[in-house]
Every structure is written in structure tokens, then in C-alpha cells.
């Protein structure tokens, strides 16, 4: 965590001013602001190469009290690092879902004056480390905006380069009978959120900690999106839940999604020890838990399943019976 | 203002849900989501053409209570339209400053549940209308994020295509003796802010209204940046103030900025009637007022001043005497 230690724990961003905050972030992003053909940040805007003549772009927001907390009910604190990590991870996941390789991210950070300077340092370190550890070390920080707000509001916009045609949710071909395949964690973030939300937890097991990490620092499989582009017929990342997102992919193609019960049972079994301790339902986590940022794709039945992916069901013309579950609405 | 009337004035975004809010915005952005080579939004991300093999990118944030109000002390209300306009205008201004033509904007909108649906409709209409009226009708809405926050937090990220080399703040040549030239409003937004901030204003003159418009709906000269690219040696937009930004441009080139007193006097004279009525100093507005989003550039002494631009001073090796003025810091 670069330069977090340089500031006394009680220094606030109001005391540092814009230039001081920028200095902290620039230290976090050392080596991430230059590259071949890259100009800026530091000017009014940055110039980012787009060698294929186009670029992919998506935006994600995380607000304090709604998408992250500095102190979780179970007693775990987030010093800013996990917020930075998750902000980057979920946005890079959108690039992954298009089969694209991240080129740059722009960051907007709005904070109250009394925000500790160390929070900014850890937030920046979280973004930088997520880019590196998730396999997107080439990501340029293309700039952003630093400003005031009543509570911390963060927004990130990633851009990326395609390696093939963009992989969309809606295929050009009829997907009837195509297999649904998945890669990445499932239900783990929901389990982590459940653990974090418990009040006064006496002890944490290793499985609890793994789940908490899954929620606070998700690990989208960024190598997989570009690697299966051109092989799968449709793709999206699973940000809301397996059921919701499989239905979205199916609906976009005029079909229904059938989810393999054996796959669900296997995934639920892996989370059962955590669920049991906390009086929760592991099936619910697997089917309706969001924020794992795995990939969900439609694969032609004759095609080989890519390594690291599970077949989790198929696309059909018949409506599927579903457990009674309510979807997630951001409002 | 498309479909603002469709919702009862007391419908909130919490009642509409994410899908309902998206519908409102999609109606505002009709015809702005497709174009040659454009894919999305609607998928995980959008694909935007970058025919020259690179793109310009910058991000701006506006938060309620810090950068905009729904109700100003003088009694003027902003139903969301001016906020949308200004958010787009200031971000497109950054593209202008690089000599680039906007290709797309992504918008992040975080709101409390009780935000009126009509606010969203007017906000969207403000963005769309600013793009059209400022001469950037080709701008694609490349997506964004809709989510919850305790107060309204908006962020925009524009991308653009260069028409020449990017015009930076720091020139490759020595700028000693180069003229400082300017295009666009100056001091008008500061005058407007002063009027808006007065409590219980009995009447508004035409000049007051023009100034208020200048602050709430700034008009960056978007045709000028690309048109002078390749002719000026350095350029930036004036978002903070003539003095601050001229100093920044000078410092970036190892020089000092001298501002022509006659130009200042002429500009101040134009604002004097407003200043007089409100007991303010028009010189202060001209030299230290921000948010007009004009362009400031360095021009070789032998080059012709482009039409619509003023010579406002020059770059020198000697420090310049300055009125005592404190700069603006975002924290």
C-alpha cells in the first residue's frame, strides 16, 4: 500500500486539498499512466490508443452506505482497499464479458472533507492491485475527477480493446439447444455478504474469510472473456445472479434458460458449511447471489467446453419451473 | 422535454424501479444510441468507433449541494435540465480543449429513492439538448450506471476523436512571446452564480437572466477546439478562471502569463451593470470567475488570430504583478 503510511492517521482530504490528494493517487498509480501512444492524464483529457479502430466502454458506480461500508456489522473494516479493488474488478468484468482486453480506467472520487487521507491511499492501492492481480496490468489510469460530496461516491469507466468481434448477449444465430456454460465463482459473494452482515460474530472460519474476500475483492476471470471470444455465441458477466442473468441471456435470444440441478447442488454443497453456521440457504446463494462477476456464455452443443468452464444448463424453447425468488432491483 | 409530462409530478424513482428510470432516459436519448460501428448500450458495454486508432477521454462529476442545487437562494429552481446541460457541457469542453470531436458520453446517475421521476426526465433532456445545441449532435450515449445514493451524484465520461494531433497544455516549442488568445464567455458564469446566490431577489433584469444562463447552461465553443488544432501551440479550457488557467498554461511551459489590462477592462465593462446592481466587482468576475468553459490558447506572434478569438495577453519570461486573489480548490 504505497504511501498510506506517509500521512498521519488523522490527516483528512480537506487538510490536504486537491493537489495533496492527487499526489497520493499518483503514487498509487505509478507506472500506470504511460504507455505506447498514451498521453495524459494531467491535461484536460487523456489520449488512449485503440489499435483496432474501436473501443469498448462501460461505467460502474459504488456509493458509501449503498455499495460499500467502511465498517461492517460483523466487525470487519474496509480501509478503502477493498472498495478500490471491487470498483475496478466489477468494471473490468464488463470488458471481460465483451471478450475485450482492458486498455484504461477513469476514476471519479467524490468525498466529504473529513475523509481520512489514508482511505484515499488504500482506495488507490486497491484499484492498482486489482488491475495487476486480475491479469490486467496493462491498464492505464486515464484520469478522472476529484471533488466533494456529502458521502463517498466513486465511479469508474473502463475502456478495452476487442480481440475478435464483440461477444454480445444477443447472438446472430438461433441458440435453441445451446449449452449454458459458466466460469468463475458463484454464490461466494452472497455468502460473504451474509457473513459480513452478521452482528458481533464470535469467530471467523477459514471458509468465512474466503467468502468475505469473494464479496469484498471479487475475482472476475479476466483471461477467459478474450480467450473464448469467437468460440461462444453469446456472453455476459454474472453481476446480479445466475438465475437473473441466465434469464436475461435467454430472453435476449427469445428462449428460456434451464439450470442443471446437479450443478446447483454441487455448488451449494461447497457453500453448505458456511450456510449451516449462519443459518442460511446455500442454494439461494448459488442461484440468486450476485457480485461474483463470473462469465455466463452460450456454447454450440458440438463445441468443446473450454477449460475451466462448467456446463450449467441449456437454452430451450420451453418455460422452466423456477424456485420462488425475487430479483434484485437497484432501486 | 420528452416524456417529462408522462409521469405524475409526485412519482419517485423508487416507485419506478431501475427499468422505469431507464425507460425515461432512453426516451431522452432517442436517436443517440446508434450510429455507424456503434454497438450498445444495453449490453455489458458499448463499442464505439475510433477511426484514427486512438481516442480522447475525460471524466467530470457534479454532486447535489456542492455543484448544483435544485432550488437557488434567489428563487430560481433547476428541475434537472440545467444540471444535465452543464454536466455534458463541461465534459465536452475537455474534448474541445484537446482539439477533439466528441464521439460518446457515458453517464452515472446515483439518486435517493425519493428523487422525482421528472427530475430524471429533465436531466436526460438537458444532456441531449446540450449535445445538440452546442454542435455535438453526433454524440452517442454509450451507457452508464443507475444506482442509489443519499443525494444526487452525477458523473459523465466523454470520449472524442482527434482531427489533428492532440493540443496539449505543454507545447513542444518555446512559447516565449507567444500571444494568449481566448474564445468564449468570461466572467459570465461567476456573475450568474452571484445573482443565483442572492436571497429573495425582487426582480431579474435581462442581463441577470443572461448571466444565470451562463452559469447554469454554459456554452463551450465546441467548433473552435478542432478548428484551431494544428494552428495553436498549446490549449486548455478555462474551467477555474482566466488567472488560474493562464498561470497553469504558462507554468506548464516554464513561463509567466501577462493578461492585457485593456481586455480585462473591456470584459469587466460588459458585466458592470450586473455587478453594480448586486454590489459585486466585475473585474473579479472576469479574472477569477470559473465555469465559463471558454478556450485559452498560445498562438505564435506571426500567426493570424482565428476569427472569434481575442488576444488577451502573452507569455513572458518575467513574473507578472497580479491582483491579490485566492485560487479555487475543489476541497
Short structural description:
2 copies of one chain form a homodimer. Chain A has helices at residues 13-28, 81-97, 117-133, 188-197, 206-216, 224-228, 242-252, 261-277, 282-288, and strands spanning 46-49, 54-63, 100-111, 140-148, 153-162, 179-183, 234-238, 256-259, 294-299, 310-316.
Compute the number of structural domains of chain A.
Answer: 2
Overall 3D form of chain A: flat
Helical run tally of chain A: 9
Name the chain pair whose interface involves the most residues: A-B, 68 and 68 residues
Low-confidence runs of chain A: 1-5
| Gross CATH architecture of the largest domain in chain A | 2-Layer Sandwich
CATH class (first level) name of the largest domain in chain A: Alpha Beta
Oligomer: homodimer
Structure write-up:
2 copies of one chain form a homodimer. By secondary structure, chain A is α+β, with helices and mostly antiparallel strands. The first copy, chain A, folds into 2 domains: 4-162, 2-Layer Sandwich (60s Ribosomal Protein L30, Chain: A), CATH 3.30.1330.10; 179-316, Phosphoribosyl-aminoimidazole Synthetase, Chain A, domain 2 (Alpha-Beta Complex), CATH 3.90.650. Chain A is 34% helix and 22% strand. In chain A, the strands form 2 sheets. The first copy, chain A, has a 5-stranded antiparallel beta sheet, sandwiched between helices. In chain A, strand 3, helix 3 and strand 4 form a beta-alpha-beta unit. In chain A, helix 2 (81-97) runs parallel beside helix 3 (117-133), helix 4 (188-197) crosses helix 5 and helix 4 (188-197) packs across helix 9. The radius of gyration of chain A is 21 Å and the shape is flat. The interface between A and B is large, with 68 and 68 residues. Strand 1 (46-49) of chain A pairs antiparallel with strand 2 of chain B, so a sheet runs across the interface.
